[in-house]
Design goal:
Porin, elongated, 279 residues, two-stranded antiparallel ribbon, mainly beta, single chain
Length: 279
């Protein structure tokens, strides 16, 4: 993660040398999750909304392209009991911290250069995120990754999955340029993950007694809560499906512009915002 942050900051520094203006902003909205513990495994499902907040800096290179570095905080969750999967009985929640570097392509500017402008845009990029799935046991939440609910760490099974991983972002939205200083926006973006363990549930084939004997009673319970009175025999299962997990963030943004804005607005002398002194 340290190497990623160092590389990201270096890229941002290089880009800033060529930027025409910069913005600092905040964003707030909702996140939701798509994965093994959702009504269907692959899609966008709005049942489990969670709050999302963040901070970002944006560098504008004329009217067409912007680069953005953002820090987001959110949570994702799911519960089989709420989606009609009482036969499986799994649940989870996970806090997420995400650092992302994205490029924004402004498709066109609608409106007056001296008044309100509407700018539809699309964005894409990459990031790094940290997560830590927890499962509910009565009134307590238990961290799932250290348990090895799918036999992680045992002979014949995978190693424990990493809690910090890379993702790919993509989405779109609208910016509303109010004046020289302020911009309001709305955006929605999805995160393609390279793990199927955001919810601690994957397509791995698991033997209940391997988990029970190798990782303990608690791991076995969270692996398959429907097994109440295990007897010696073959209890094997796949907890999830073949698709990797996703999460999505939909946000309102508010940003304040610093630096020269002439090129961003396409000229016209709009430059009353706060900027660095020139000599």
């Amino acid at each position: 993660m340290r190497k990623f942050l160092t590389t990201t900051l270096f890229i941002v520094f290089c880009l800033s040398l060529k930027a025409q203006s910069a913005e600092l902003g905040v964003n707030g909205g909702l996140s939701f999750y798509s994965g093994d513990i959702s009504p269907q495994e692959f899609g966008i499902y709005f049942k489990d909304f969670n709050p999302a907040i963040g901070f970002f800096g944006r560098l504008n290179f004329g009217q067409t392209f912007s680069a953005r570095l953002g820090l987001n905080f959110t949570k994702v969750s799911g519960d089989d009991m709420e989606i009609g999967r009482e036969d499986r009985g799994l649940n989870f929640r996970s806090q997420i911290v995400e650092v992302a570097l994205t490029g924004e392509l402004n498709l066109l500017h609608l409106g007056s250069k001296k008044g309100l402008q509407v700018v539809p845009f699309i964005f894409g990029g990459g990031g790094i995120f940290h997560f830590n799935p927890e499962g509910r046991l009565e009134d307590n939440w238990v961290e799932l990754q250290p348990l090895g609910t799918e036999g992680q760490g045992l002979e014949g099974y995978e190693e424990p999955y990493a809690l910090t991983q890379f993702n790919i972002l993509g989405g779109g939205g609208f910016k509303f340029i109010i004046n020289d200083s302020w911009t309001i926006g709305f955006e929605m973006g999805g995160r393609k993950l390279f793990t199927d363990h955001l919810d601690d549930v994957s397509n791995a084939n698991v033997d209940y007694f391997d988990v029970l004997e190798g990782n303990g009673d608690l791991a076995a319970h969270f692996s398959n809560p429907t097994v109440k009175n295990p007897e010696e025999g073959d209890i094997s299962y796949r907890r999830g499906g073949k698709f990797d997990d996703w999460y999505y963030i939909s946000s309102l943004t508010l940003s304040f512009r610093i630096g020269n804005s002439n090129n961003y607005y396409g000229g016209g002398g709009r430059n009353r915002n706060i900027g660095c002194p020139t000599f």
